[in-house]
Amino acid sequence: MTKPTVDQLLEAAVSAVPNGEIRPGQQQMATAIAESQRTGEHLLAQAGTGTGKSLAYLAPALLSDGPVVVSTATLALQSQLISTDLPRLAEAVSEVLGRTPKFAVFKGRHHYLCPAKIGADDEDTLFDTGEEDSGWLGQRSRLGKDIGRLTEWASDTDTGDRDDLDPGVSDTAWRQMSTSARDCVGVSNCRWGAECFAERARDRARAADIIVTNHALLSIDLIHNRSILPEHKLLIIDEAHELADRTTSAARAELSASSLDRLSRRSTKICGNDISGRLAEAADLLGVAVSDSPNTRLLELPEALNQALTLLEAVCREAVSGIGGVSPDSADSMARNQLKSQLTEAQETAQRCLIDADSDVRWCEGDGRGRSLVVAPLSVAGLLGEELFAGRTVVATSATLTLGGTFDAVAGSLGLRKENEQTGEDRPSGTNTGTMWRSLDVGSPFDYRKQGILYVAAHLPRPTASGLSDAAAEELVKLVSALGGRALGLFSSRRAADTAAEVLRERTDLPILLQGDETLPLLVKKFKADPSSVLLGVMSLWQGVDVPGDACQLVIVDRLPFPRPDEPLSAARSAAADAAGGSGFAAVSVPHAAIRLAQGVGRLIRTTGDKGVAAVLDPRLHTARSYGPYLKKTLPPLWYTTDADKVHAALGRLGAQPVAVGDLSHGHRHVVMSSQSTNH
């Protein structure tokens, strides 16, 4: 059978979508990806919300010689791909392709039951929850019931995947019956290796045409020299603007008194009382040292912290040497291997903190006994530049890849040179061995200027505190009251969100939903269902909430989301940029704010029928000449104004219209008349 073209695959894929037709930009993106596969040239493709970029990259992916890996930042997108997009695609293209393509999800080991844990009979290990009150009888009883359920389920399940367990169990119980990549002893060293659910899942993934994973696992694969994911020639990174941050998180390490206490207890049987006692001593020293250390970057280690780390490094090295090689046939091989792995990790983290390398940043965070010493890389651009692009073609896509009108900031975070700095020597031929890349912005199917307003409250005072000023609170009430609900409030701090909720509850009759009062999925469900409600929250709402239709017609941002000046990583990166002769604020803080602001404002227009107002209560977006235009270029091109009266009037007209509410994803909507609230 003749190999199909990308046009044929895309046409077949789109035909399976309800009311399916190829959207503006979809064809352009699919064609560009097919061309990148042919030339080996990397592609950064910005595709606005509503483009249908999932099918735009999945269709050409089927042209690849061998498996394709697709990585996402959020569980929501991963679930959409696995449960909706890929099953629909596989069925739709089977006739054109001459076969039905296979797809699989590639998850971390901790998502699966561990047969070695199921077969263990060490009660001390099973009930070591790591929590201070783990010995409480009621908790142990509930934990025992959950573990019993998991033990029975292990005999019935084919996958061992936690997502297939309904109803679920507590996180504590699941941790007892699963294992992490760090603690896994490896198939060859495990007597239950042939029964391993994680290995079975990986075998299925290796046989698939399209493998879906997440940025966390992709980052771990990069850190471990590409030894985890199956070999592939095409990698598609969706939500690519998040990859650098996820890689930073994967490369960070931490130590706490509570974690070292657990390590001390676990080491007693295998390493003896001397090692266990010295680990407990190191835990006590570390606990006191971190409690006395500030939350800011530690340019020099306090003497107490230095002593604790020195003791920890020495005792861990001695313990690892004492354990030595472990025979897979020994009765306690799993326990010995896992303890050895944990001791090695603690030793390496202590060494990393003691070395004081310019490439790492150290700080303390948390509260009480759980307070930790943290170390993380100053930058992951070098790691990504070396590991991400070699030997395969990479397509990075997102609705937010251009900052200030260029791809340079995101490209730099991924370890790529600016487009105008590339040379002919980088250009690959056939299999990609260079870092030559090109960019593509396919735009958006939305008519932003007709569908929405970007309102900047330029008359308000510049924000100075972490809370919400009286003037900003007054403007918030006017905006929400003019529309009569249907508002999503995005705040830079918990304090500001709490203040906003208090003010709106006092001065309106609207249902106010505040993040933290209930689970986020339940709050979003209530927000979608009630056209008079207002949902308020902090950073996770800026990125993870998708409420198309009339339920959300007003998005309010309290202030520009610059990182806190005392946030250790951002402060260290800014200082490094300043030291190199640049501007830390321009190189670090402004791009950070641009991405977050674009994500927040992007909550407003989700379909071609959406209308509304994005209101920014921070006048600096209008008045700051140095970075204001840069931030505005990053945002969707909504109709721009600073005229409060015009915006309040527009919201009033919008609020007077009937609204359609309900579960938009399943097509169930009903129309109700809105009722505007008035100020008391």
TrEMBL record:
| Cofactor(s) needed for function | [4Fe-4S] cluster
Q: What's the top EC group for this one? A: isomerase
Q: Where does the signal peptide begin and end?
A: none
Q: Which residues are in the Helicase ATP-binding domain?
A: 12-289, 34-277
Which SMART domains does UniProt cross-reference here? DEXDc, HELICc2
Under Enzyme Commission nomenclature, its number is 5.6.2.3
Source species, domain of life: Bacteria
- A GO biological-process term: nucleobase-containing compound metabolic process
Entry's transmembrane regions: none
Q: Which UniProt keywords apply?
A: ATP-binding, Helicase, Hydrolase, Nucleotide-binding
Catalytic activity entry: ATP + H2O = ADP + phosphate + H(+)
Q: Which GO terms describe its molecular function?
A: 5'-3' DNA helicase activity; ATP binding; hydrolase activity, acting on acid anhydrides, in phosphorus-containing anhydrides; nucleic acid binding
Q: Which Pfam families match?
A: DEAD (PF00270), Helicase_C_2 (PF13307)
| UniProt KW Ribonucleoprotein keyword | no
Q: Which SUPFAM superfamilies match?
A: P-loop containing nucleoside triphosphate hydrolases
Instruction: Describe the family membership recorded for this protein in Swiss-Prot or TrEMBL.
Output: Belongs to the helicase family. DinG subfamily.
Q: What is this protein called?
A: DNA 5'-3' helicase
**Source organism of this protein record:** Stackebrandtia endophytica
